[in-house]
C-alpha cells in the first residue's frame, strides 16, 4: 500500500490531539486538524472564518437535515446561492480529506474523517476517550479554569461533537465503538503508550516500519 491514513476522533480533554502529535513524530508523517480548514479555504476561495464557524458551531437542529435539499456527497459550484452553506463547507472539507487519503500518509484529527473515509482500505480509525474527571483535570491544566468551568466546557464540547457527527453522518453515533478500529482510554493507558499501540496496528495492517 502506497500510503495510509490514521483518523483520530476524541472526547474533549482525553488527549487525542496530543496522541496525534506523538504518533506524527513516531511515524514520520504529518497530522492535520485546523490545517484542513485552511486548505479548504484556499481550495474554494471562501474566507477561512466561514469554515471556522461551521466547524465550531452547528447551526439549527438535527431535524434541519431532513429539510435540506443539499446532497451531503457533492460540492456545489461557486455560482450556486448555497455555495457557502454549512453543508457545502463541510463537503469541501470532506473533499480535502479524500484528496489527502489518496495522495499521502497522514493523521487526521476530527472532522468526521473516519466516516468520510469509511470505505477506504488504507485507513485506521481511532477513538480516544478518558474518564470525565481525568478529562476535566487535563482541561484545567491546559487553559487554567475552575473545575466548574472545565466541567461545563467538557459537557458542551462533547455534546457539540456528538451533534456534529450525527448531523453530517446522517444519524451515526459518534461514540459507537463499531465505527472505529481502535477505542482507547487514556485514563488506563497513557498517551505515549496509546501512540505506540496505534503505530503497532499500523505496522501490522500496512506492513510498515513504525
Give structural notes.
By secondary structure, the chain is α/β, with parallel strands linked by helices. The chain has a single domain (5-196), classed as Rossmann fold. It is 49% helix and 11% strand. It has helices at 16-27, 35-44, 48-56, 86-103, 113-116, 132-143, 147-168, 191-206; strands at residues 5-10, 31-32, 106-109, 123-129, 182-185. A 5-stranded parallel beta sheet has the order 2-3-1-4-5, sandwiched between helices. Helix 1 crosses helix 8. The protein is globular and about 45 Å long. The model is unreliable at 58-73 and 75-84 (pLDDT under 50).
Short description:
This protein is of the alpha/beta class and 210 residues long.
| Count of all domains | 1
N→C terminal distance: 15 Å
Task: Work out the number of β strands.
Answer: 5
Write the CATH architecture name: 3-Layer(aba) Sandwich
Report the structural category: alpha/beta
Kindly provide the radius of gyration, computed on alpha-carbon positions and rounded to a whole number of angstroms: 17 Å
Beta-strand portion reads 5-15%
The biggest sheet amounts to:
5 strands, parallel
Return residue spans where pLDDT drops below 50 for at least 5 consecutive residues. 58-73, 75-84
Shape: globular
CATH class placement? Alpha Beta
The residue fraction in helices comes out at: 40-55%
Q: What is CATH's topology name?
A: Rossmann fold
Amino acid at each position: 500500500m502506497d500510503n495510509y491514513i490514521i483518523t483520530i476522533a476524541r472526547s474533549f480533554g482525553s488527549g487525542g490531539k496530543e496522541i496525534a502529535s506523538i504518533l506524527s513524530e513516531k511515524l514520520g508523517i504529518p497530522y492535520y486538524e485546523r490545517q484542513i480548514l485552511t486548505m479548504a479555504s484556499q481550495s474554494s476561495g471562501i474566507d477561512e472564518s466561514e469554515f471556522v464557524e461551521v466547524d465550531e458551531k452547528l447551526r439549527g437542529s438535527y431535524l434541519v437535515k431532513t429539510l435540506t435539499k443539499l446532497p451531503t456527497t457533492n460540492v456545489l459550484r461557486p455560482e450556486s446561492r448555497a455555495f457557502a452553506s454549512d453543508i457545502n463547507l463541510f463537503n469541501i472539507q470532506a473533499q480535502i480529506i479524500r484528496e489527502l487519503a489518496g495522495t499521502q500518509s497522514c493523521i487526521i484529527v476530527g472532522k468526521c474523517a473516519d466516516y468520510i473515509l469509511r470505505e477506504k482500505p488504507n485507513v485506521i480509525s481511532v477513538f480516544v476517550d478518558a474518564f470525565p474527571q481525568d478529562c476535566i483535570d487535563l482541561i484545567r491544566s491546559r487553559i487554567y479554569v475552575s473545575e466548574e468551568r472545565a466541567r461545563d466546557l467538557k459537557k458542551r464540547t462533547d455534546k457539540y461533537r456528538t451533534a456534529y457527527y450525527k448531523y453530517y453522518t446522517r444519524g451515526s453515533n459518534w461514540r459507537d465503538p463499531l465505527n472505529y478500529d481502535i477505542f482507547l482510554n487514556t485514563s488506563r493507558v497513557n498517551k505515549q503508550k496509546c501512540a505506540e499501540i496505534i503505530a503497532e496496528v499500523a505496522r501490522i495492517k500496512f506492513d510498515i516500519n513504525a
